[in-house]
Design a protein that fits this description.
The chain has 290 residues and is an alpha/beta fold. Strands 2-3-4-1-5 form a 5-stranded parallel β-sheet, with helices on both faces. The chain has a two-stranded parallel ribbon with strand order 6-7. Strand 3, helix 7 and strand 4 form a beta-alpha-beta unit. The protein is globular.
Amino acid sequence: MNLAPVNLQEEYTKTEIAKILTLLDEELVGLAPVKSRIREIAALLLIDKLRRNLGITSANPGLHMSFTGSPGTGKTTVGLKMSDILYKLGYIKKGHLLTVTRDDLVGQYIGHTAPKTKEVLKKAMGGVLFIDEAYYLYKPDNDRDYGSEAIEILLQVMENQRDDLVVILAGYKEPMDKFYESNPGLSSRIANHIDFPDYTVDELVQIAKLMLQDQQYKLTPDAEIALTRYIEKRKEKPLFANARSVKNALDRARMRQANRIFDSRGQVLTKKELVNIEADDILQSTVFND
């Protein structure tokens, strides 16, 4: 047994966990409970690695995860950061994340599902398999559905090859809860359940500003007020997808800005005109009824 002392700060720095967690804080607005949970998991994995390095025996930590929440709440982004953490600590060999849905795993006829699922698993080996809207794999009302076959193969790999692959199952919370109730074998293999809250209006406005900043656009004060009002109304309507809906609104606002500038092509343009998103660009592109 190796009894040499371990410098925790040195290991923390060497594995670049601090850098990954800092990037998670910087790149994702809000999501405090999610970030806290990821830090807890990272701490457990780091300490487990140090224990193993010193020859202290312990059960392997469960690595499979469940991410629940509405669309556009950062689940895929957090999945990417989690794959970085797992790779830096040596829990996966490659560190890549493969995102799939039911269509990538389930076939349309007898004998089609197994090879499709196994091909996806082969591509994901050594990394993280992120299955979005995982509850669509299970359709109990359809006797001719082949999703259960994909689940059985997935269960075997999650149990027998857990050192080679980490699986993250993601989707809306309520259907995911029902999915686990109907598939207790899957639920028992998921050690880490993380719920992603919806963003607040203020957080979504902050996200919008960051999106525009990345593309060298800027909201005028009146445009920011207009966007805030739009988000407040849009959140109350069906199919709201948090940051995704905000991105769509900004894409339309950019289109409106371009048309507004094009229609006044007699004027001399400055950087300000090309950068600023005006209130009318928000109002006329969203119309508050989308």
